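Journal club side-thread
Mid-discussion, someone asked how the predicted structure for our own chain would compare to the paper's figures. Pasting it here so we can look after the session.
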Amino acid sequence: MVSADKSAWVRRCLKALPAELQEHLLREGRLAELPAGATLLQVGQYVRAVPVVLSGRVKVYLTMDDRRLLLYYIRPEESCVMSFSAVLEGKPSQIVAEAEEDTALLLISSDDIPQLLRDYPVLNLLFFRQYQQRYAGLVDNIGQVLFHRLDERLLSYLQERCRLTGHRIVEVTHRELAEDLGTVREVITRTLKKLEAEGLVRSLGDGALEVC
């Protein structure tokens, strides 16, 4: 149950939902806070609760053979469609979800999801819209991997990070860039030098990049 002192804040984050559903989630949901870098969900883990991001940002990615590929970000007022799908199918998670920055979540018990969908059909519509959004993003990711050079993908990734944060400076390590783009650190280092020579990014040191 959400405490009274935080209920008004949570209501603002859930403003797109019917008032009755908001009250149910405030009563039955659970608030959780994750520090940056904390893992919310691992591959093979059964989903016990579907998260709704209230503040901060969560990134979702695939892992295979010690490499990973970024799928999408979960931003405030959004949930994780892959977790939602795993709950409905009763299957373990196929993705990893990790807090990219300090993040506050409202956790909805997976046991409540089927009944909530029956009682509040608007939830089906909201999750369907997010499915459409994620599907379009995944198609774009596949196109990036298949048809775009790594320097184009890297620049697009950095520009997206800027759009998400509202800042031109991105704090990220070469290792993290390599992991999110499914390559290796040495290749990222060479590619960043190329982008910097072209005047598209500028290294500020200490893992900070300015997107020009």
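Post-session note: The mean pLDDT is 86.
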